[in-house]
């Protein structure tokens, strides 16, 4: 009997990973440098299952880069791709800083080249300039991004992924699962959307809660925090530099001429290895 490899099966027999989080926004990080991409939608979904896999808000796959320190791809736990993920970018930047000893890391993501820097015990990343053209967010219709024609008068902001930011008087007064899921799937957003609710506490402080496209409620969302400071500043509600309290802690945000900078903590939780029997079932 021949022991031919089964072409329908993943050729991966063991898969090492790291679990990290930034403000409780949690990630599985897989290093695929020097080899072909290993993550498929089915594998992302299986790993992302909190009962049968490990669970994560996003999976980040590190790839060899020709133009930066690394390339980075993001997956949601429903198996869909995300064009941007600020907190995972900060987490992976921390790994690369520890690995190389450098204080500045260049990371190429789907939205372009991002620069991350050591900021004391924290990590800052420039998430790039906000996208405010309706077809680039993207939206399904040519409407005013600063006042979307939806109940609650949200602002649309693209950060390499779509966001709808709602300003509310009282953050405790929102039904996040119901409103989040409804807005995520509103036909105005052809690629669905991440949804942020923001209570402006002062010109320099915002309380924000998030419903993420493809992941649901999370304790923090870096690109969502960036979108929120842009929206608040466009509406004249805050300055361009704010402290933001999310469910998982605090981020510092600053919309500068070269992009939206976000600073916050990163935590390495553990290193693990997916077993061959788990991978074979995917
Ligand atoms: N947690 C991420 C955002 C994930 C966005 C993802 N849910 C999408 O489909 O765009 C962050 O820190 O920016």
UniProtKB/TrEMBL annotation:
Record keywords, A-Z: Amino-acid biosynthesis, Cytoplasm, Isomerase, Lysine biosynthesis
GO cellular component, one term: cytosol
This enzyme's EC code(s): 5.1.1.7
Family annotation (PROSITE patterns): DAP_EPIMERASE
An example Gene Ontology molecular-function term: diaminopimelate epimerase activity
Pathway: Amino-acid biosynthesis; L-lysine biosynthesis via DAP pathway; DL-2,6-diaminopimelate from LL-2,6-diaminopimelate: step 1/1
Organism: Pacificibacter marinus
UniProt-annotated location(s): Cytoplasm
Catalytic residues of the enzyme: 85, 221
Annotated site residues (Could be important to modulate the pK values of the two catalytic cysteine residues) in this chain: 163, 212
Residue positions binding substrate: 25, 58, 76, 86-87, 161, 194, 212-213, 222-223
The name this protein goes by in its record: Diaminopimelate epimerase
One GO term of the biological process aspect: lysine biosynthetic process via diaminopimelate
């Amino acid at each position: 009997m021949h022991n031919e490899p089964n072409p329908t099966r993943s050729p991966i027999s063991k898969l090492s990973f790291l679990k990290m989080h930034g403000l409780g926004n949690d990630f599985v990080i897989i290093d695929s440098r020097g080899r072909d991409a290993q993550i498929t939608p089915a594998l992302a979904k299986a790993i992302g299952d909190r009962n049968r896999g490990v669970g994560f808000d996003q999976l980040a796959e590190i790839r060899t880069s020709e133009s930066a320190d690394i390339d980075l791809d993001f997956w949601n736990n429903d198996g869909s791709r995300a064009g941007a993920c600020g907190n995972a970018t900060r987490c992976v930047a921390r790994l690369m800083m520890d690995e190389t000893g450098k204080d500045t890391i260049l990371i190429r993501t789907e939205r372009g080249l991002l620069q991350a820097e050591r900021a004391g015990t924290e990590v800052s990343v420039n998430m790039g300039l906000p996208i405010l053209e309706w077809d680039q967010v993207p939206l399904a219709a040519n409407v005013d991004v600063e006042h979307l024609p939806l109940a609650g008068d949200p602002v649309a902001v693209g950060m390499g992924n779509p966001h709808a930011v709602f300003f509310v008087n009282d953050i405790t007064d929102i039904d996040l699962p119901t409103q989040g899921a409804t807005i995520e799937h509103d036909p105005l957003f052809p690629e669905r959307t991440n949804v942020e609710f923001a209570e402006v506490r002062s010109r320099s402080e915002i309380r924000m809660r998030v419903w993420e496209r493809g992941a649901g409620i999370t304790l923090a969302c870096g690109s969502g925090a960036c979108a929120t400071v842009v929206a608040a500043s466009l509406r004249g509600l805050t300055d361009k530099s704010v402290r933001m309290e999310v469910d998982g802690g605090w981020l510092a945000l600053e919309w500068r001429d070269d992009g939206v900078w976000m600073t916050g903590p990163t935590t390495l939780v553990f290193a693990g290895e997916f077993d061959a029997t788990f991978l074979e079932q995917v």
